């Protein structure tokens, strides 16, 4: 493995910081949004979930850079963040105008899905406080230099909220790497965040490719799938150009990852979650990672994994991977920690895992779902 040297814990206030939006997730349980009469409330967000997993499951010191409106919903979100063990000192608070005309807290309504009915999310996040973060709004040198951070995580969801959020992500990553902080980026693409474009499906693929390319240029660890690499980063598809050994998905992903490493010379590790959806309730789940030594690391496969709530599985992978790498474990072990944690995260409701480190370690070592007494 060829990761840059990770800063020692003794020199840093935080082991990891996430930059992203934290939403209130409203969950109708086994029912549907359109027929719900009550919701369970969780907190969640693609980038935030990584910090939350690192804190609650793995016991690391984490914080989140985000913004919330100072009203009852914002304070509820803060309360949930605190319950997850994540530091809230970096939250920026915005005044509430009584209605939410200019700035709001983001909401996310999520159905879990079951069997042939897939999961579904309906977000209500326009004009959110996090989307209005700016590069100058945070003293990045104080955060990464004076306080010290070992690992920064951000991604395509936060960068897709607005032009200023994309610029904020670039500023954060630039400062982080300047101070020796490792940077991970998840290329999460959500079509709804790139709407109102000229493409046939209504998205703005040109702007998305520009932003995602800049994200990849600032990453040490890059998480994404085949479509992210071809459509968002513009990597030539080996199946289409005849370089592939066949059309097998594994061959294609391996060649794409190699091309990502060739193009983005600052990236040390490329990791891809591999999910085959049998139904909303059963998935095959695994991870493949590549590094600059040419190594290909394939995780333990969890075929026929029974899913309660698939949202957050990928974020669970990233937090498990980051934990193990921060602990100095080799990449093959780290990939399996991430894969196991992601699998466990999908067996409980909400975005975030309810697993313990001992449970993750047991699954990595081969222990299954036997009764613990």
UniProtKB/TrEMBL annotation:
GO terms for MF: kinase activity
Domain Carbohydrate kinase PfkB: 159-353
Keyword Transmembrane: no
Keywords: Kinase, Transferase
InterPro entries: Carb_kinase_PfkB-like, PfkB_dom, Ribokinase-like
A Pfam family assignment: PfkB
The family this protein is said to belong to: Belongs to the carbohydrate kinase PfkB family.
PANTHER family listed in its UniProt record: 2-DEHYDRO-3-DEOXYGLUCONOKINASE_2-DEHYDRO-3-DEOXYGALACTONOKINASE (PTHR43320:SF2), SUGAR KINASE (PTHR43320)
The protein's name in its UniProt record: Sugar kinase
Organism field: Cryobacterium frigoriphilum
UniProt lineage: Bacteria, Bacillati, Actinomycetota, Actinomycetes, Micrococcales
């Amino acid at each position: 493995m060829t990761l840059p040297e990770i800063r020692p814990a003794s020199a840093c206030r935080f082991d990891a910081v996430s930059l992203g939006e934290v939403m209130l997730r409203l969950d109708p349980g086994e029912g549907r949004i359109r027929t719900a009469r009550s919701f369970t409330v969780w907190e969640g967000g693609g980038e935030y979930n990584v910090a939350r997993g690192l804190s609650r499951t793995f016991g690391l010191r984490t914080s989140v850079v985000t913004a919330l409106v100072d009203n009852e919903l914002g304070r509820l979100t803060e309360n949930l963040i605190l319950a997850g063990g994540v530091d809230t000192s970096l939250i920026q608070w915005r005044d509430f105008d009584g209605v939410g005309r200019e700035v709001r807290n983001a909401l996310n309504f999520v159905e879990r899905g079951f069997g042939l009915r897939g999961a579904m999310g309906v977000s209500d996040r326009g004009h959110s406080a996090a989307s209005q973060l700016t590069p100058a709004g945070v003293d990045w040198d104080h955060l990464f230099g004076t306080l010290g951070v070992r690992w920064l995580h951000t991604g395509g969801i936060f960068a897709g909220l607005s032009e200023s959020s994309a610029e904020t992500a670039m500023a954060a990553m630039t400062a982080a790497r300047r101070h020796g902080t490792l940077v991970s980026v998840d290329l999460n693409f959500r079509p709804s965040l790139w709407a109102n474009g000229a493409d046939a499906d209504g998205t703005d693929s040109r702007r998305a490719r520009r932003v995602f390319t800049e994200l990849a240029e600032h990453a040490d660890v890059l998480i994404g799938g085949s479509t992210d690499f071809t459509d968002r980063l513009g990597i030539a598809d080996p199946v289409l150009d005849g370089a592939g050994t066949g059309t097998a998905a594994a061959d294609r992903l391996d060649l794409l990852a190699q091309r990502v490493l060739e193009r983005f010379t600052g990236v040390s590790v490329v990791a891809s979650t591999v999910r085959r959806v049998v139904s909303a309730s059963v998935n095959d789940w695994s991870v493949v990672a590549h590094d600059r030594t040419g190594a290909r690391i394939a995780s333990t496969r969890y075929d026929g994994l029974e899913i309660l709530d698939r949202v957050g599985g990928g974020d669970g992978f990233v937090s498990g991977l980051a934990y193990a790498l921060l602990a100095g474990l080799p990449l093959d072990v780290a990939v399996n920690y991430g894969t196991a944690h992601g699998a466990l995260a999908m067996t409980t409701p909400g975005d975030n895992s309810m697993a313990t480190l001992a449970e993750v370690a047991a699954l990595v070592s081969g222990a299954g779902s036997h009764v613990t007494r």
